[in-house]
Every structure is written in C-alpha cells, then in structure tokens.
Amino acid sequence: MRARIAWGLASFLLVILVGLMTWEPFFAPAPAAPAPRSYSVQITRDEFGVPHVHGKSDPDVAFGIAFAHAEDDFATLQDVAAMTRGRYGAIAGVNGAKVDFAFHLLDARGTVRRRYAALPADTRALLDAYAAGLNTYAAKHPAEIKLARLFPLNGRDIATGFALRQPFFFGLDNVIGALVGDTPLGADNGPALDGKPLPDYEHGGGSLIPAAVDPIARPGPLPIGEDAALAGSNAFAVAPSRSGDGVTRLVSNAHQPYRGGVAWYEIVVESDNGWHMAGALFPGMPFLALGHNEALGWTNTVNRPDLIDTYKLVLDGDGSHYRLDGKWQPLEKLRVWLPVRFGPLVLPVPKTVWRSIHGPVIVNREGAFAIRYAAIDSIANIADYYHLNKARNFAEWQALMAKHPLPSTNFIYADRAGNIAYLYNAAFPVRRPGFDWRRTLPGDRSDLIWHETVRSEQVPHYLNPASGFLYNANNTPFRAAGKGHDLDPAQTSPLLGVELDETNRSRRAGRLMDATNPIGRRDLHAIKYDTGYERTAEVAWMLDGIARLDVRNDPVLSKAQALIGGWDLRADGRNPGDALAVMVLKDAMKTSYQHTVPPDPRAQLEWASSHLMKYFGRLDPPLGRVERLRQGPGKYRIDLPLDGGGDTLRAATSWNVDPKDGRLLIKHGDSFVMFIEWPQDGKVTSRSVQPFGAATTRPDSPHFTDQAPLFAAHRLKPVHFFAADVTAHAVRRYVVSNR
Predict the structure, then answer these.
(1) For residue 177, what pLDDT is reported?
(2) CB-hemisphere CA count at 13 Å for 510?
(3) Is the domain 234-268+278-305+386-428+455-528 a CATH 3.60.20.10 member?
C-alpha cells in the first residue's frame, strides 16, 4: 500500500515537473504570420563583415536588415521578440519577467491593436517585411530557436517593441520601479532633478508574493535593455566656417551597452526607391536610428526632459472605482500570468495590473498612483522615424522632427549644404499652469490630464550658430554652441522641466571646442578621444575630500592619497595614479547626472586601494592593465587594454569586475563611433568603429572581434557607402528571399 502511494506521489510530482517544463508555449498567444508577400534582397559583406543591403523596394531592404542582423545576433533578436509577446521571463527568468510586467502594465499590445491600422501603408509594409526577414532566418535555422512558438512574427509584433521600449529612454522604468516598491513620489525622497524628487530605490515591500519568486518584488529600473539610459553619449557638429577646410563634420558617439537589446548594429542600406543610409540601429528596428544618407546626417544623445506625471487616485471603499470630477469611474483591473524561468522550470506567477483614464496604475501601500507619459498609447512616431531616413534636406528633416519621431533624446544634425543644428527633442505635454508638476498631482481632476504636446519651435534648438560648432554630452541644452552663443534658459518655460546640469564631458567639450580654431579633422578626433577631467563639481569635491582625509596611521591609504594628489586629471594611462583615480571617481561621476547620494571619499579610496592591492599587488598598475576590452572565448578571443573613464569624452562608463583577475571589463561607454564629412563638393564620406565586430554573439565568426584592435587604438575603419566602393570591398555577396 505504501509503495503504491509513494509511486502515485512520485508520478504526480513527475507530471507537475514535466508540466512546469513545458506549459508556457501552449498557453502563449498564438503567433500570426505577416501577410503573404515575396521579398528578395542582395546582401554584401565587406572586409569587416558589415552588411550592405540592397533591394528593389524599401520592404525588401527591411526584410534584408532583419535577416542580416539575425545572421550576426539571432539570440538578442529573439529576446526582443519575446518582449513583444510578454514572454521574456520564459527566457531570462526574473529580469525578463520584469519586462513582461511592464508589457502588461503599459498595455503595449493594446496600443498596437488600437493604433496599427492608422500607420501609413508604407510603414506597415516595412514592419511586416522586417518580421518576414526574422521568420525566414528562423525557418532556415530551427536549431537556434530558444523559445517554442515564438515564430512567426508579424508587423504588429515589431510595432509592439516600439510601444514597449521607447518610454524607458526617458526614465519610466525608474517611476514604475519606485511605485512598485511603495515609494511615495510626492514626498521628500532625497536628491532632486530641478526640484523634482527622485525615487528612493532602497525602499522595498508591497508584494504579496515572496521576493524569491516574485519578479517585481524589489523596486528599481526595469531591464528593458541593459543600462538602456545610462549616462553617456557625445555628439559634435562643425560647420564649414569653423572647420578650416570648408568641410562640414558630424561625429556620432552614442554610448550604449556593448551587448544586449540596446547594443548598436552597424549597417548600410539602399533601395531602388531612394532609401540609402549608413549608420546603426537597435535590435528590432527595421530602419536606422542614426547615421547619414547622401544629403544629411544626425546623431543622438540622451536628454532628461520631464515627460512623466503621476497622479494619486481617490478610490472608493472596495478599491474598484476612482473619483474623477466628482463622479466614480471604474478602475480597470486585469490579472496576468508572468512566465518566470528557474533552470529547466518555468513558473507561472500571477500579477494584477490596473488602468485609469490617466494611464497605467500601480496600487501600493501608499495608495493608487496613475502614470501619464509622453507618447502614451501612440505608435505614430514609427512612421516619422522611418521617413527621417529618407529626408533630402534640412527643411524635410525639420518638418519630420516637428512630429517628434522619438518622444525624447537630443538630435544633432549636419548636411552637405553646410548646415548644423541641434534640437532638444522632447514630446513635452502641454501642462496647465498653476500646479507643481514636479510632484504627485491630484488624480480626481480631468483638467490635469494633458492630451497635447508643445510645438517643437518652443523647445531649445540651434541652427547655424555664429561659433560654427555644436556639441552635446548629456548636458543642459543651454550649453551647446560656445561662449556668447548659447541659448538663454530664461527664454524656455519652466513647465517643460528642461535639465540645467552639466557633465564632465560637456564641460570638457565646451572648453576644448571654444579654444580650438579651426576645428579640423585631427582636432575633432582629439577632442572626441580626450580623456581629461575638469577639476570642478563632483571631481573637485571628491579629490578635495580625499586630500582632507587623515590617513597617517594607514600606510596604504597614505600612499593612495599621495597618488591621487599627484594625478594629472587624465585617464590616458600615462600617470601612475590613473587606475586608482578612475576607480575612485566612478561613482562620483554619477552623482550629478543620476542625482544619487555622493559617495564617501574615504570609502571610495579604501575600496579602490583594496582592490588594486588584492589583484595587482600595487596601487599604481598601468591603467591598461586594469581596464580591459575582453570578448571570448574561442578562436577570435580578444583581451585588450583600454583608456578613458566614467564621464570622459573617451568613455568607459561602467564595467564588470572579473572575479578571477580583478580586471575591469568595460561593458558600456564608447560603442558605435562614426565620423561623417561633407567636403565642398558635397559627396559624403564616413568612418566608423565598434568595440568588437559585426557578429558579437558568433564566436566562430572572424567578425566576432575584428574591430576591437582599432577601437582600443582610437582608430576608425572606412564606411563603404556608394555602390562602386561596396563592390570594390566585397568579400561575400549573396541573395536572400522568402520565395
């Protein structure tokens, strides 16, 4: 009898185990293929493996973009695709389930369901074609698929990726993370951005599910893309009047993670319908995010406009209704199940999401908070962003920018006519005066629910300043064109919430560009790769704090203090204090940009000194021994020295510490770098480089790391833009179709 019971129990547990290993694909939404259509594209790979995609139509090219990208990084593209279905937790576990929670909370799929048909036909055709390219690759390589029933994809899936991810570039993840953690946004929460209290990310609680299982039990930013909005990005534009040789120059240096869902992918595209552009895009994008066509180019840097408002709702007794203009409205409530992978098992975790007329709602111990953010319930900007790729002059480009092709991020522009421009792009809501929009608003007044955006001419912008140059390094737009040529902040409405702070990179760039005349090719290269710190703000505060420490009874700290005292304020690897200084300053450099609590000088000095002594046996190892560009294993493994630091123009923003040898493995900072030039004859040329290569997740490919030596040495490779140049440097050429 006991044996039968034991056998029955074991059989029952086995059934449960098998069920937890296999249930998720069967309960996932059924995938739907795009409308049947044939695509054909020619892909040419150059000596660095960069794909040059040519097709008869724009949809053919979008099909080729997806296929070429999948050849180089199908794993990441699948992650992004899973996000658009609310299934990322089945791949990435708890971190993925956080993204899935955001997917349901923001109703990303619902936005697409409501708005997709209103997209222009050419944009829908592009999205469908891109999905078909991924489907074709998946069909040809079934062994690489890591989540059952993920394919086929369609254009709505691709559009959902935009609806889900774009708000997180202006900080929506921080607000969601804080509210999930029961942080009252209207209270005094410490450091502020222009007076707006920031969430206390150490505050926890608010979940009924144990933290070991609950994917959102702990607050904090959601991993939509690793470090999606970390401090970083430089941009420079130089007009012919300042270049010394009549050349118009644009430098794109958008800092992103080296790997993952928001890592850059370089590509050149050309269709017979007039789409011809070189630059880079993110996984899941069917067009380029930045770069140049024959006539013009642009790049981006992250800005920090106030595009998010929170409202505290007044609920009725049972929490099923909220009050609005004296009447009770039903609070929408939806139970969702998040798939969370733990090893071979995928656990179904229940969560509840709410919505009001304001937008998504989070209910915590402090009450119910509604969130409204720029481009809420909209995907119209996808079409404008695509059409931006095909703009032929500044007037066309400017008209598209007026529609906000992105809800946020700065745009820095240049063209063959010699124009340079900078637009502090942001879809600012038209807010009612008389309220403190920096704090939580009353949720029972409909007149505080905005619906329109501020006209683009009302936000800070520059066109052809007399200085002949423009720059941005994630700083206030009121420092961009040099002394005597910057905008006056008093001319911009404080209701917009435009940031006023600077970064070390912006201070450094402004000083160097002001002092350099003319700014030629070599000068601009030297400025972009500058490793210097300005001894002001957080740098001065930290160095002065270390100088004041009493470390007479600690020989190691005394020597460390002396090294810092003799440091030359450069992270170029030439001073014995470089490695120590870069480590000591890393967290301090985040203080102004991310508005965190300043680190303690003694604690920073102790940590950095201890680390260097433990792993290197000395306080003054060369910087290049400590900072490394590492990718492997395999035949094409690389391990190279790097320079630069946190918030230097040669950016090494963040790192992982290798526990075996203590090296700082740079994972974010300088990523895709592109120098673009229009000489007086107007024929564009460009050069570029990436940290590793075109095939970042293919260890057996020679393009896994072939750009790394150039990247480490501050060198660039040519971009083959025109057909004759592409042919001359073709290493492999092939046709792909879904016929």
Answers:
(1) 83
(2) 22
(3) yes
